[in-house]
Amino acid sequence: MDTTWTHATVLLNEAVDALFKDGAREFAAAADGSYVDATFGRGGHSRLILSRLSPAGRLLAFDKDPQAVAQAQTITDPRFSIRHQGFAHLADLPPQSVNGLLMDLGVSSPQIDDPARGFSFRFEGPLDMRMDTTRGESVAEWLATAEVSQIAEVIREYGEERFAGPIAKAIVARRQERGPISTTTELAQLVADTVKTRESGQNPATRTFQALRIFINAELEELQQALTASLDVLQPGGRLAVISFHSLEDRIVKQFIAKHAREEYDRRAPFAAPKVMQLQALARIKPSAEEVRGNPRSRSAIMRVAQRLPA
């Protein structure tokens, strides 16, 4: 039976507005530009960007998820193209070729709600969690061979889980006694049995599932690579907008913008010219109360916006 999962795009209008400059004259020029949706997802942001572009405008999207790429291929607009790649491949684009770059770092609702993808502890499914199901190792495959210390480090670093050690020991003990964990519900129950206290309203497995997903997809490493590439591919005056959903992502984005939005002086050479600022921080935006009521999954979102300065 075919099942259709819906997806509500977070900060839809705010994100697209952030890519285009203010004012009618500037907007007209921006509409002719080239834009990148670095995480197509289910295409909400891409479709709105296309509606803002002139016939001369162009939009390139990236996504690792084959289902997202299939969805993107239903867009027949000649101004649009999609690449089945992660957004670290932004580095492949020509220097200063992009007027606006959007990264929405969230997992799409269809990915979470489809049990076959293995992202959610709420549904019985294979313990997969790969964004790109055509390549790489699943969470189940990694947990089948990883050592206690490796598992604990991943859960601690990427999930900020204070019970990472006991959880890792329980996973390996279970593997030795009854074989590897293969389903989402098996892992969720094991974590629940191990973690005796948890924040009110939060499933005990939340942090562990987040950590394993981030690790298996190398999400933070790819984010850092993409942010670095953005400095090369954005034109002077080009906009960068990044929507993050947890503190690890947002910290990386915040620190990246802050680092490149200030002049740096060499204290050993006080009369030398400072390192030139490359970005101007423009905004920090959160979903409205109305959006959160309509889409509770948006409540943790933070969008940071910056503009590329002339070299």
What is this structure, in a nutshell?
With 311 residues, the protein is an alpha/beta fold. It contains 13 helices and seven strands. The chain is globular.
Please, could you describe this protein's structure?
The longest helix has 15 residues, at 164-178. With 311 residues, the chain is an alpha/beta fold. It has two domains: 12-109 and 219-308, Rossmann fold; 133-216, Putative methyltransferase TM0872, insert domain (DNA polymerase, domain 1, Orthogonal Bundle), CATH 1.10.150.170. It has a seven-stranded mixed beta sheet, with helices on both faces. The radius of gyration is 21 Å and the shape is globular. The chain starts with 11 loop residues before the first helix and ends with a strand. The model has no long low-confidence stretch (mean pLDDT 90). The protein is built from 13 helices and seven strands. It has helices spanning 12-19, 24-30, 44-52, 66-72, 109-113, 139-143, 148-159, 164-178, 184-194, 206-216, 219-233, 247-260, 289-294; strands spanning 34-37, 58-62, 80-83, 98-104, 234-244, 279-285, 302-308.
Total number of helices: 13
- Quote the beta fraction: 5-15%
Query: How far apart are the first and last residues' alpha carbons, in Å?
Result: 55 Å
Please report the first level of CATH classification, the CATH class of the largest domain: Alpha Beta
The SSE order reads HHEHEHEEHHHHHHHEHEHE
CATH superfamily of the largest domain: Vaccinia Virus protein VP39
